[in-house]
UniProtKB/TrEMBL annotation:
Keyword Transferase: no
Classification via Pfam families: GntP_permease
Cell wall biogenesis/degradation is among the record's keywords: no
GO MF terms, alphabetically ordered: gluconate transmembrane transporter activity
Protein name: Predicted D-glycerate permease
UniProt superkingdom: Archaea
Transmembrane portions of the chain: 29-50, 57-76, 96-124, 136-153, 173-192, 223-247, 253-269, 290-311, 317-336, 343-361, 402-427
GO cellular component assignments: plasma membrane
Keywords recorded for this protein, A-Z: Membrane, Transmembrane, Transmembrane helix
Length: 428
């Protein structure tokens, strides 16, 4: 069967299973992965592809998600996240815009848009509760900020490898990338305000049903509230920007977030009993397990889709069509991103297809880079690990994720491509 048909059929299956039948995403993704592998004629290698795809995602994200979940829940129960949210609200007259900027600023230094989202989603939840906003609104303004800078700003992992492959000077793309990313982030923010302002506004109720879960508690000091977030961020930044051996260990995201977990537990234990803190940690680990399973399912689907060769086939097809030159790198990146779900992988694979075409396209390498990077915004769906992290940590329905994360990414990607075209017309 043709790879493109298999790809489209797999999307229909997963959409039917998760959105229509409301089967758990993990089970739906695994079943779809099996069907995809069989249709690709690779039945013997399907299970190996599924387990390797799951294992790759688990090894990269299990500790990050579990640690982030513990920090978030402990800060929520102790009131630390509420204190941070109150500070953002008092400093900024537009706390939603503040969330967007927060995600934008930290995504590249942390070298992971998912990590930035995991760290700051507890703050987004507290702002939602205090301002009585829909879940999808606060989560989407944060996620759009993380995506804008991560996809476009050097030295993000998305951009970094392609810069060297295309022979581009760092200085030639740093400032243009920041400017374009800021505009794209603002577009994402306004998209969220316009199209994600309706949805579930349920607040968290305490066990007695009397109100917000941490209503009436004594808020912790700012050191206790900020340290479990600020210290991991500082350690990760130190690992990125220094050559100190100590930070090579402590600045690894897994280790840095585990340090944050220890700090959150220690500060909580000063105010609450060990039994309460242990209960919060256990609940956070159980919740993170669901998130990790969904992500692993996405990794399995991405691995089985890669077996079909659909990414290469779509790239070859697009490169042979009579399209405007600037669209070719963009659409090739879109095809690869849609198939396997990882933005970093997209920018590792796309240049191998695009670079031989550069003399024919006649485009400057900087424009080729930004055209491909624009394509990493779309189309993000069920095989994207961030899709499920965004959904589960914000407690959203699949339809809400498609409306916000997927469609919002399309809008941001098209905006980024349009800006790339403007740069090309004005400066080349």
């Amino acid at each position: 069967m043709y790879p493109i048909i298999i790809f489209l059929f797999s999307l229909i299956i997963i959409l039917f299973l998760t959105a229509k039948l409301r089967i758990h995403p993990f089970l739906g993704l695994i079943l779809t992965s099996v069907i995809t592998g069989v249709l690709a004629g690779e039945a013997a290698g399907t299970i190996d592809a599924i387990t390797s795809g799951m294992g790759r995602v688990f090894s990269h994200f299990a500790i990050i998600i579990a640690a982030g979940s513990i920090i978030g829940l402990v800060l929520h129960r102790t009131g630390g996240a509420r204190l941070i949210a109150s500070d953002i609200i008092s400093i900024s007259r537009k706390p939603l815009f503040g969330l967007n900027i927060l995600g934008f600023i930290f995504s590249v230094p942390l070298m992971c848009c998912i990590l930035a989202y995991v760290i700051f989603i507890p703050v987004a939840k507290e702002i939602r509760i205090k301002k009585e906003l829909p879940k999808v609104l606060t989560a989407s303004v944060l996620v759009f900020g993380t995506l804008a800078s991560y996809n476009l700003v050097y030295p993000s992992p998305v951009v970094y490898s392609a810069v060297s492959e295309l022979g581009i000077n760092n200085s030639d793309i740093l400032i243009p990338g920041i400017i374009m990313a800021l505009i794209v982030s603002f577009v994402g923010y306004f998209y969220a305000r316009k199209f994600c302002s309706t949805g579930n506004m349920d607040i968290i109720i305490n066990e007695n049903g009397t109100g917000i879960e941490n209503e009436g508690i004594i808020l912790p000091g700012r050191i206790a509230a900020y340290s479990p977030i600020a210290v991991p961020v500082a350690l990760i930044l130190a690992e990125v920007f220094t050559n100190i051996a100590l930070f090579d260990i402590m600045g690894e995201p897994d280790m840095a977030l585990l340090i944050g977990v220890v700090m959150a537990i220690v500060f909580a234990y000063r105010q609450y009993s060990f039994g309460h803190v242990r209960e919060w940690v256990e609940k956070a680990i159980k919740r993170s397990g669901v998130v990790i399973l969904d992500m692993c399912g996405g990794g399995a689907l991405g691995a089985t889709l890669a077996m079909t060769g659909v990414g290469q086939e779509m790239g070859t097809l697009l490169s042979g069509l009579p399209l405007p030159a600037i669209l070719v790198p963009f659409l090739i990146a879109v095809a690869i991103q849609s198939v396997q779900g990882s933005r970093v992988v997209t920018m590792l694979v796309a240049p191998s297809i695009v670079i031989p075409l550069v003399p024919v396209l006649g485009l400057p390498p900087e424009i080729v880079l930004f055209s491909m990077a624009s394509g990493t915004f779309l189309i993000s769906h069920f095989n994207d690990p961030f899709f499920w992290i965004y959904k589960d940590l914000a407690e959203l329905e699949t339809s809400e994720v498609l409306r916000s994360y997927t469609l919002g990414g399309v809008v941001m990607g098209i905006t980024s491509l349009a800006l790339t075209g403007v740069v090309y017309l004005l400066f080349y």
